[in-house]
Specification:
The chain is an alpha/beta fold. It has two domains: about 10-45 and about 285-385, Aspartate Aminotransferase, domain 1 (Alpha-Beta Complex); about 55-285, 3-Layer(aba) Sandwich (Aspartate Aminotransferase, domain 2), CATH 3.40.640. The chain contains eleven helices and twelve strands. It has helices at about 70-85, 100-110, 125-135, 150-160, 185-195, 235, 250-265, 270-285, 285-305, 330-340, 365-385, and strands at about 35, 95, 115-120, 140-145, 165-170, 200-205, 225-230, 245-250, 315-320, 340-345, 345, 355-360. Strands 2-8-7-6-5-3-4 form a seven-stranded mixed sheet, sandwiched between helices. Helix 3 links the parallel strand 3 (about 115-120) and strand 4 (about 140-145). The chain is globular. It starts with about 30 loop residues before the first strand and ends with a helix.
Length: about 375
């Protein structure tokens, strides 16, 4: 049977993001350590469970909301943005999205024309490169976290990869996968460089509440006229399954992003948005403070057991296991981990890092996580011989 070819730009996008071995998770006998995907073992704060959002409290909950978002949530986001960033913010600058992933997709499609390039600090969250490809643009990997040492070298890394087709820079801090926080002085220098070159800034701030060693710097506080910031209730508040997040930025960009959201999703689940209102009203503040302490403690213990630097923020460790690899390469090392029930993400998912792995230290309760880290330490020790 003759049929037209499928969309060719999808050929560059793989079907497996974090691990081709994840299918073995369910079949493993014994304790498993699913560290390959970022999530939390914690349930949300008691007042913020979806099952507690009732029609009696919120009549019309099973109808569409406004396509930019539930008005009460949009207003709460505006107030939070003004308080956190100091940047003037209006409802027209907000779009509620189905999590940060959808938010970034709408932002990229609003900013990128076919053939445009987006500079992406590497290593990077894998889906951002695919968002650019889906917009018929070109993601440009910028080796950064293992090279930049000060504001000057941070700017040089960007400058060395900019071309006449560059339209935007993607900056994620606290950082997935390295657990690093980009210092404020570096961000100021990069923002100044982006401004002088007429570039947009995509600010991925989903780990804004998980800064352990330094305060989080909101990029809209530095360049509100060119920054599109992405936020999520998933990571900080244990609500990944709710699929609710939001983007904030210049009105013209948000108008374009709204067109994308309107025509791909229409509106975000109403109940999830009501939970978002409760979060921004402060009902999860105590939960957030307690969970942040737990995350930092287990992250520090995991790093100490593995002999690597403690995370500055976020929920990940990014390890160089190059000295553990035999003639099977990284795939063989990951197989050895899976044989012990340990599932971790391969470095090539995050850029050109064939000797690295990423693990999420919040995916399981601390005692389980630390048992898994001990298993990883044993695999590393055995591999080094």
């Amino acid at each position: 049977m003759n049929l037209p070819v499928l969309a060719r730009h999808l050929d560059a996008i793989g079907g497996s993001v974090y691990s081709k071995l994840a299918h073995r998770l369910a079949a493993h006998e014994g304790e498993v350590y699913p560290f390959h995907v970022g999530d939390t073992w914690l349930q949300p704060a008691d007042d913020c469970w979806l099952e507690k959002v009732t029609v009696a409290q919120h009549p019309g909950m099973h109808h569409y909301t406004g396509t930019r978002g539930l008005p009460q949530l949009v207003d709460a986001i505006v107030r939070a943005q003004v308080r956190l960033t100091g940047a003037a913010t209006q409802p027209s600058q907000v779009l509620v999205t189905a999590g940060a992933t959808h938010g970034l997709a709408t932002a990229v499609q609003a900013l990128v024309n076919p053939g445009d390039e987006v500079l992406i600090l590497a290593p990077f969250w894998p889906l951002i490169a695919n968002h650019v490809r889906l917009a018929h643009g070109s993601p440009v990997s910028v080796p950064f976290f293992d090279r930049a040492t000060d504001p000057g070298s941070a700017v040089a890394a960007l400058r060395d990869h900019r071309t006449d087709r560059t339209v935007a820079v993607y900056i994620n801090t606290p950082h997935n996968p390295t657990g690093r926080i980009i210092p404020k002085a570096w961000l100021e220098a990069m923002v100044d460089w982006a401004r002088s070159n007429g570039l947009w800034i995509l600010a991925d701030e989903v780990y804004e509440h998980h800064s352990y060693t330094a305060p989080h710097t909101y990029l809209r506080s530095l360049a509100p006229e060119r920054t599109v910031a992405v936020h999520s209730f998933s990571k900080a508040f244990g609500m990944a399954g709710n699929r609710c997040g939001y983007i904030v930025g210049p009105p013209a960009v948000l108008e374009a992003a709204h067109k994308v959201g309107l025509n791909t999703l229409y509106s975000v689940t109403t109940a999830s948005q009501w939970v978002g209102v409760q979060v921004l009203e402060g009902r999860a503040n105590e939960w957030l403070a307690a969970s942040r302490r737990l995350y930092q403690a287990v992250g520090n213990q995991a790093a100490d057991l593995l002999g690597v630097p403690r995370p500055e923020g976020g929920t990940f460790l990014f390890l160089d296991v190059g000295d553990c690899l035999d003639n099977r390469g990284l795939g063989g090392f990951l197989e050895d981990c899976v044989d012990r029930g340990l599932f971790i993400a391969p470095g090539p998912s995050f850029g050109s890092y064939p000797h690295h792995v990423r693990l999420c230290f919040t995916a399981t309760p601390p005692e389980v996580t630390l048992r898994g880290i001990a298993v990883l330490a044993e695999v590393i020790s055995a591999s080094r011989g």
